[in-house]
Structures are given as structure tokens and as C-alpha cells.
Amino acid sequence: MAAETESAVPSSDPPVGAGDAQPDLLPVRMLNEFAYCPRLGTLMWADGEWAPSLDTRQGLFTHRRVDKGDRRAVPESDAPPEEPLHARSVSLSAPGEGLTAKLDLLELDGPVATPVDYKKGKAPDLPEGAYEPERVQLCAQGLILRENGYRCDEGVLYFAGSRRRVSIPFDDALVERTRELAAAFRLAAANDRLPPPLKDSPKCPRCSLVGICLPDETNLLSAEAADEHTGGALHRKPRKLLPALSEALPLYVQQQGAFVGKSGDRLTVKLEGKKLTDARLLDVSQICLFGNVMLSAPAISELARRGTPICHFSYGGWLNAITTGLAHKNIALRIRQFEVAADPAASLGIARGIVAGKVRNQRTLLRRQLKERDKGDRNHPALTALDDYRQRAEHTTEAGSLLGLEGMAAKTYFAEFFGLLPPWSRGDTNGRNRRPPTDPANAVLSFLYSLLTKELHVAVQSVGFDPMLGVFHRPRYGRPSLALDLAEEFRPLVADSATLMLFNNGELSEESFLSRAGAVALTDAGRRSVIAAFERRLAQEVTHPIFGYRIVYRRVLEVQARLLARAVTGEIEHYPAFTTR
Amino acid sequence: MRHAYLICYDIATPKRLRIVHKTLKGFGDPLQFSVFRCELTKLELHDLRERLAGVLHDDEDRVMIANLGPINGRGDESIEFWGAPLSLAPDRGPTIV
């Protein structure tokens, strides 16, 4: 950039040495997102959230030629080229405007510069020639060119879908709107709170971040909180914008001595040189290794690149470590998480919801099972007791008493729960025991809780939380407290119900266990059955109790982690635990 | 939702043939020589297109992509086998070994 052009922008230059107060240059690409939806832009730019969708990928593909760039020099504004010139992929900044951009194509004709932006779609049938986000983005590119000393009065949008060039004049109204949006964007990015989601907008279904933003769900829950004060009107049921199924599933390797390697875009599992199985990387959502299993460096690096976590268990099923790629960028959420964890009242508020949800789910499981066994005894003392514990948990004001209530509810619950299992599977005392478990039922429960914790560890980590710092479980070295917190409400729903299935459908028998001096462990075959039952349960569809749509448990875990993030950042008032009826 | 796609190719040089074959192995299973059956979402299919576009020479090579329909539906029923296929329909559950 020439010295003259720099000094040509005097007034709006940020003060030198402003340090942290000086805002980053705003990429005009992000300004497009912000104009489309303020929440989307903020999620992408400030929080660093990103999810590819068919639209974004097709967009990049359309750009592949212009993105390549060329190595020819581009003349500066004070030395206009003699012949018209085209330059691809030109990066330029304007500190005065606070903007930066990579221009797809820059057309220079004497002193006149025209930015050309490639769009994959068809030209819309509008008098302005294009929708506002595209026009604003292009105009911002124009402003950058102007600050760099070029004459720039219009830009061009090239719509690849209809192979049409559409000229967009940079009139005063558009320039003003562009600056207004850029200023609003900076304000939103500096704010702790995200802009609210769009209301019932047709823009949401095709948005690539819909699963992160949860627009309808967030609106419903924050509206519910507001309604308690206003008296309440009915709200629309959320649209089902989340995909119900996840296509990729976990790969478990518990065969001792197995070797997991990468061959092309597949993972192969071998034992002593012989292939046991292979799976497309596309189909693998996480890999879980038990005990003595090897994993090649190319496989690790490819899994990390794809963001696929690797969970390392001991032979006995203890979760030792999770390998992931570089840490999640959402530092703002972590800061809020630590603030909430340090604030006893805020922590308790969330913990109450979690414990009450868990006790409610325990009661529901017992009620259904006892109804089958005792032919409809609705007033079983255990059910009444659990109801009471739940109500007290909902209103307690002390973390200590919440812990006590949770313990008493568990005792009441397990006294009945073990009675639902065949006699050979349980010890004499009908209660939980662990480290090591001394009867088959407890061995299965411990293993399932470990799998469930792993699942939530992955979920909270992928949302951007630090899994080690919780609100109910106190932090301890090496304990994934937040994953354990969130696992509470799912223990009855996923682990306990899978245990009942395993024992009562005869999937496990006495041969599935090994007893060594009183400590009971699963055999390889037994463990395989338990993993299969756990996965079957996660693949089961339920009707969401608040949102009303059908969704598989695996997705529910993810949604709950995101709702917890909303509660932590204060966007929704209460954390809504997942409970079934 | 994934669909099943039948993907067939004629590739002019052995080097590109090897690359195309290896690429397709990451997206599906070979049914016969130069014929794959791939279960893909639209996004995954786009991925495959991008990968192949970087390899193929349009003047010499050919690729055919036929959408057989959704898996668990028409996509599963539309292929009839005589003799021994190189692979069978994939197991769609989690992999436990």
C-alpha cells in the first residue's frame, strides 16, 4: 500500500496502542453472514463455530478457480494499468473502515476498480439485483478498495447457477447500510450474549449452523421463562430442523492385541496380520479402544483432522483418556462455565435441575416396571418417596442437601431396581457396589455408566465446554465432572434400562462373567453384548418431552449439552433436564 | 438421509485408475470391477465429486453415478445379483470387534 493512500484516511483510524480495545478487522465474508442473521454471524466470527453443509461446500467448489489466485502483480492505485486487468483472489484490508476481504476477482480499468464476487446460486429476481447480505458484502469490498485509493462506484455479483453478471451500484444508501451493519456486528461480537435466534424464519432450515444455534428450541425455552411473568400465550411447537439420525456411529475395538490402521479413507482392524473388519471413515463418529489395542499414527492424525475423538479405556472399561484434535475455539463459553462453577448459587441452580431430572427418570423407570410386575400398584412407597425427594431437590438451597437427596433417592431406587433383575445377577444387599463390583448386575451398571460418561464427555467437549469442571460433581484430579453431571439424568434412561434389557432378555448369562476372589468382571463376549445393548439404546427414537419431535437418544445427548451451554451463558433461564413420561 | 449410488467408471490410464479405485474405496464397496455401491448423504456425494474432479481427465475418462434411492428402501432392493458379488451390503450398526 502506498504511503499517500494510508494517510488519505485520517479521521477514523484506530488510535495507536489501543491494545485489546482495538477491534480486529472484520472479514466481509462474515459481514454477509451477519446481514443474513446476526446470530449466525456472531456464532461464526466471535465464537468460531463452523459446520460444513452442502451449500457451503458447493460454494467453495464454485470458488475453486477464483480461489487459486494468480501470481501476477496488481498495480497500486497511484499507477493505474494501461490495459484493463483482471486479478484473482486479492487480499486487501482497510484499517480505517476496519474491514478486510479476499476479493474473488478484481477488475481494473484505469483508475476504476470493480470487485467481482462469485455466488454459486442463481441470480434472484429482485429489483436490487441481489439480496441484502450479498450487496452489503460487495459494497464492503468496494469500501476497502476506496480506502486503498481506487475509484470504485459499483461491484459485480457473478451468479454461477445462471451464469449472469449483476451490477450493484454503491449508492449512499447501500454504503450507509454497510457501515451500519459493520458497527452493529462489532457491538454484537463484543457482547457476552449472542443475538437472539430468528423467529420461525424460513432462513433457518438451510442454515449450516442450525444444530448449533437451535433457533426454535432456544426461542421456546426463553419465551417460557418470559411467560412466567406475562401470563403465557401458547407457542409454536419447534420445527424439526435437526436431523433425527446420525449417520456415523462409534467403532469399538476390544479384541486384545488388535491393530487399527488407516488404508485410504478406511480404518482397518487387524489381528496378527489378518483383517478382522474395516469401516469407512465416513461411518465412524468416534473410536473406543479397550486395553491393549494399537492405533497407527496416520490413523490418529486423520481422525484428529476430521474431529473424530478417540476414547481410550482400560481393559476393565475405565475411561483413561480422550484424544481429539486441537481444542475447540469457543473460549467465551469456557469463561462463562468457570464463572458459573465459581458461583455457588448459579451452580446450584443447574445442579438442581439435573438431580430433579434424574430422580424423575428413576421414578418413571420404576413406575413402568412395577406396573408390569404388580399389575398397577400406583401407590408403591418407593414411588411416593422418589416424588418427595424430587420436589425437595427442586427447592433446596444448599449444595450439601442436594447431594444428600440424590443419595437417598438412589438408595430407595436401587433397592427396588435390583428386585427387577434375576436373582443370580445380584448380590445379597440389593444396592450399588463398585471398585470392584461384587455381583454381575453391578459390573454391568459400572461398565454402562463408564460408556455413558464417555458419550457425554465427547458431547460437552464438542460443544466447547471444559469437561473437567462441573456444577454438581466437585472437581477432582482426572474426574470429568461436567460429563458426570450431564450423565446423571441419562443413567436411568440409557444405562439402567439397558441393564434390565440385558438381564431379562437373556442376553447375559452366568457365563458372561468372571469372578475373581469376589470381584466380578465381564468376559469379552459379555462386554460385547453390553456395548451392543448400549448402542441399541442410543439408536432408539423418543419423543422429545419439550420440543415434541422424534429424536434418537444419541442426538438428545448432544442437544442437552447445547442447552446446558445456553443455560450457562444465560440465554435460557433454567437448564431443562431431559425427562420421559 | 443416505441414498445408495451405483458408481461406475472407465479410466484411461492405470495410474488414474488406481487413484480412482482407492478414492472410491473410501466411499463405498466394490460390487464388480469398476463398479461400486456407495451409501452417501448429499454432502458426502459432493465430497466424492470434488475428489474425483481433481483426478479425472474429462477428455479420456468416464464416470457414471446412478442414484438407486434411499437406503432401507428402494436403494436396497434395486440390485439383483447373479454369481458372487465382490462385497455384500454393509452392516449399518456400530462396529464392535
> For the CA atoms, what is the radius of gyration of chain B?
14 Å
- CATH top level of the largest domain in chain A? Mainly Alpha
The computed structural class of chain A is alpha/beta
Helix content of chain A: 40-55%
Chain pair sharing the greatest interface: A-B, 35 and 22 residues
Rounded to the nearest angstrom, the distance between the terminal CA atoms of chain A is: 66 Å
Low-confidence runs of chain B (pLDDT<50, min 5 residues)? none
The description of the largest β-sheet of chain B is: 4 strands, antiparallel
DSSP strand content of chain B: 25-35%
According to CATH, the fold-level topology of the largest domain in chain A is Four Helix Bundle (Hemerythrin (Met), subunit A)
The gross shape of chain A turns out to be elongated
Distance between the termini of chain B: 26 Å
What does this entry look like structurally?
Chain A is of the alpha/beta class and 581 residues long. Chain A has three domains: 26-190, Lambda Exonuclease, Chain A (Alpha-Beta Complex), CATH 3.90.320; 249-323, Ribosomal Protein L15, Chain: K, domain 2, CATH 3.100.10.20; 331-569, CRISPR-associated endonuclease Cas1, C-terminal domain (Four Helix Bundle (Hemerythrin (Met), subunit A)). In chain A, 44% of the residues lie in helices and 17% in strands. Chain A contains 19 helices and 18 strands. Chain A has helices at 3-7, 28-36, 38-45, 54-62, 64-68, 132-147, 172-190, 210-213, 215-230, 297-305, 331-342, 344-374, 381-395, 399-417, 440-463, 481-487, 490-504, 524-538, 553-568; strands at 26-27, 85-94, 99-109, 112-119, 154-159, 164-169, 249-253, 259-263, 266-271, 274-280, 284-290, 294-295, 310-313, 319-323, 513-516, 519-522, 541-543, 550-552. In chain A, strands 1, 2, 3, 4, 5 and 6 form a six-stranded mixed β-sheet that branches. In chain A, a hairpin with a 5-residue loop joins strand 13 (310-313) and strand 14. The longest helix of chain A is centred in the middle third of the chain and has 31 residues, at 344-374. The radius of gyration of chain A is 29 Å and the shape is elongated. The model of chain A is unreliable at 1-22 and 229-234 (pLDDT under 50). Chain B is an alpha+beta fold and 97 residues long. The mean pLDDT of chain B is 87. Chain B has a single domain (3-73), classed as Alpha-Beta Plaits, CATH 3.30.70.240. Chain B is built from three helices and five strands. Chain B has helices at 14-25, 42-53, 74-77; strands at residues 3-10, 28-32, 35-40, 62-70, 95-96. In chain B, strand 2 (28-32) and strand 3 (35-40) form a beta hairpin. Chain B has a four-stranded antiparallel β-sheet. Classes of the chains: A alpha/beta (581), B alpha+beta (97). Chain A binds chain B through residues 52-54, 57-58, 61, 243, 245, 247, 249-255, 258, 263-266, 269, 276-277, 279-284, 528, 531-532, 535, 539, and chain B through 1-2, 22-23, 25-28, 40-44, 46-47, 49-50, 93-97. Strand 7 (249-253) of chain A pairs parallel with strand 5 of chain B, so a sheet runs across the interface.
